[in-house]
Amino acid sequence: MPKVKTHSGAKKRFSVTGSGKIKRRRSGKSHILTKMSKKRKLRLRHAGLCAPGDAKRVKKMLNI
């Protein structure tokens, strides 16, 4: 039986916290930032957590 490979895109975008939750980066912080308010950009800095339904799919891709 061959080795199970980790999904390359998922391993670059998600990380697992100590309690087993999936941490993700917020979208919309790569370009066209001039029209955004400072408050909105500050909020985008902080990482978010995946919803439980999405976390299940991501864990499958990360082989957790």
UniProtKB/TrEMBL annotation:
**Gene name, please?**
rpmI
Gene Ontology CC: cytosolic large ribosomal subunit
| GO function term, MF aspect, one | structural constituent of ribosome
PROSITE patterns given in the database record: RIBOSOMAL_L35 (PS00936)
Q: Where is the composition biased (Basic residues)?
A: 1-14
What Pfam families has UniProt attached to this entry? Ribosomal_L35p
Extract the ranges annotated as region (Disordered): 1-30
> What are the leading ranks of the lineage?
Bacteria, Pseudomonadati, Bacteroidota, Saprospiria, Saprospirales
What keywords are annotated for this sequence in UniProt?
Answer: Ribonucleoprotein, Ribosomal protein
Q: Does the record's keyword annotation contain RNA-binding?
A: no
This protein's record includes keyword Nucleotidyltransferase: no
Output the GO biological process annotations, alphabetical, semicolon-separated. Answer: translation
The identity of this protein, by name, is Large ribosomal subunit protein bL35
What HAMAP family does the database record attribute to this sequence? Ribosomal_bL35
Q: Which family does it belong to?
A: Belongs to the bacterial ribosomal protein bL35 family.
Coiled-coil annotation reads: none
